[in-house]
Amino acid sequence: MRRASGFVLSAIRRSRTSFARRHGNFCTTPLPLPQMDHQSDSERYDFNPILRWNPEVERYFIHAYGADHFSRISAALTYPSRYSCIRVNSLKTTSDAVIEKLQGIIGETEVEGDQDEVKCGGKASAGSPLEESWKDGRITKCKIPGLDYVVFVKGSGPCAIDYGCASGAPPKEVIVSRKCAEAVLRGAQVYVPGVLACSAHVEKGDTVAVSVALEQRMADGGWATGITRGTVLQGLQTDPHYSERRGLYIGQGKAMLSRAGLFRVTEGIAVDMNNRVFKLPSFHDVLEGEIFLQNLPSIVAAHALDPKKGERILDMCAAPGGKTTAIANLMEDEGEVVAVDRSHNKVLDIQNLAAEMSLTCITTYKLDALKSISRANESIDSGVPQISNSVTPTEKQMSVHDGLCGDKNCVGNGNVFRDGKIDNSYVSQAHIRKNKRRMKNGPGKNHSVGGRVENSKGFSPGSFDRVLLDAPCSALGLRPRLFAGEDTIESLRNDATYQRKMFDQAVKLVRPGGVIVYSTCTLNPGENEALVRYALDTYKFLSLAPQHPRIGGPGLVGRYEFPDGYIEEWLKPGEEEYVQRFDPSAPLDTIGFFIAKFSVGSNSNV
Question: What is the per-residue pLDDT across 305-319, written as a single tens digit (0 to 9) for each?
């Protein structure tokens, strides 16, 4: 059974009642807590998740936000935003043209909501800047000043679903992984790799209920689902996670494969989700090159940078390229946007997106953001980068001596082959084992899948007009999120330390009079307000700058003392209005996000 403290559960009950009233939920009374003893089977097939946190992390966030506010945030995180935000490629088309095309593709009435508010919530939140936009229909241009190149497509939810429990027999069911479920809540289908277990006798075409198995604490202290892929479900209390899955049903769909097929093939759609708890249209392969699906705060972050034509701008952690291409669009493709990432494949993703959107001012490099400043004993970037030769060999090339081989060079069976001859230089057994695993498992997400990228050894200090540091973070603002138990105070503090090192690099790269925009997709004040405090205290020539548009809320003022005595300082009074903090529980209905903008003064020769 999912558990949380009595205090937090009572707060969650209050927050869910508020959530339902604000968003037009079909529930008019507080949603029940996850107790099984007095609930009917029909109440089992519901979507009523509770986000579990590490107790120390929970105390930290309650100190930052207050208990009631944090309970509202936790409840909101388990739901997706109920609209899709689309950034229009203004160099190719217009918002009006995109709206007309989308109305023809997905239709004005495909997304259910206002016609049946008892079944499916769909009202706009009162007081939201989006409320004015919805007056023009379900597909509408953003009314926020300066963001007329943004289009909103309204969704709905949470929706009541009839799983056919009235007969007393349990429905046929498929259990999916948490990550699969979170994608489904955002509008994706259920794909084969996400399926963990399935009822017996499921055949192609059957209607199945889809539930999610969340991670549970294991005996070794780690977290895992504990479900062996391919497990047969009997619809009994002896099924895996039977109690824990109560209130974790995300919709209904048609099985695209039989039970045997689900666990025999390795790819493809497993369940066509035709009846979802949250109804959001899919934009897969829709108007490629003309639109980009992007969270509203991410668009605001690029806009806050205020890029100008002809400037040289750095996007330090650029993958997958959404903010990079947004910046290039705002510059009307005139100037240079340098986009870097340390992953070969992610750099390729940026290149592909830039090509898809016909943007030519974007230059991509493979570079670790922690090494962005060129070292004195190496050549300074002159705009002519080195070509990467570290392209992972294709499968056909990996054929010599059961090792990792190129055309003429390979490592295999303890020997290094160069130009077809054995090189007796030492190769560690660990290196050999790693290469064998790579051959067996295929390229990982950080291994090249082919294609060429350019390496950079770093850039000259003061060589950019503006820098965007959308830093890698704990991502605790992303939604929907169904599990947060793995994050600890130690991991959050480590993330903050990593971000400070990146910010140190960013400060050195901006010219005097330039701008730095720092952003994250986390709720953690240690990665947000504490970074701002560090920046202002360490670099006296930095100052917080106003942002436009300003649609987020203020930052957090104060401090937190950890059990080990370390004091984390946040913003001082008067500074909170210069940053933007996007709250998932606020009427704007976005992900959790943070943006700070710094002006770089004249004493920046560091």
Answer: 999 999 999 999 999
- CA-CA distance, 241 to 521, in Å (whole number)? 31
Distance between CA atoms of residues 283 and 3, nearest Å: 37
pTM of the full structure: 0.81
Retrieve residue 255's tokens. Answer: 């099985």
Helix/strand/coil for 334: coil
Residue 470 labeled ligand binder = yes
Q: 67: annotated binding-site residue?
A: no
Contact 374, 460 (CB under 8 A): yes
Mean pLDDT of the chain: 82
Residue 521 annotated to the active site: yes
Strands 207-213 and 173-177: parallel
Q: Is 341 annotated as a binding residue?
A: yes
Q: Cα 392 from chain centroid? A: 27
Please say whether the beta carbons of 133 and 143 come within 8 A. Answer: yes
The tokens describing 295, both together, are: 């969270």
At residue 517, φ and ψ (nearest 5 deg) are -115, 125
Given the residues 159, 405, 410, 521, the one annotated as active site: 521
Encoded amino acid at 558, one letter: G
- The rounded distance, in Å, linking the Cα atoms of 576 and 305 is 18
Question: Cβ of 339: how many Cβ atoms within 10 Å?
Answer: 29
Which residue type occupies 321?
A: G
Query: pLDDT tens digits, residue range 214-236?
Result: 998 888 888 999 899 999 998 88
Q: Is 251 annotated as a binding residue?
A: no
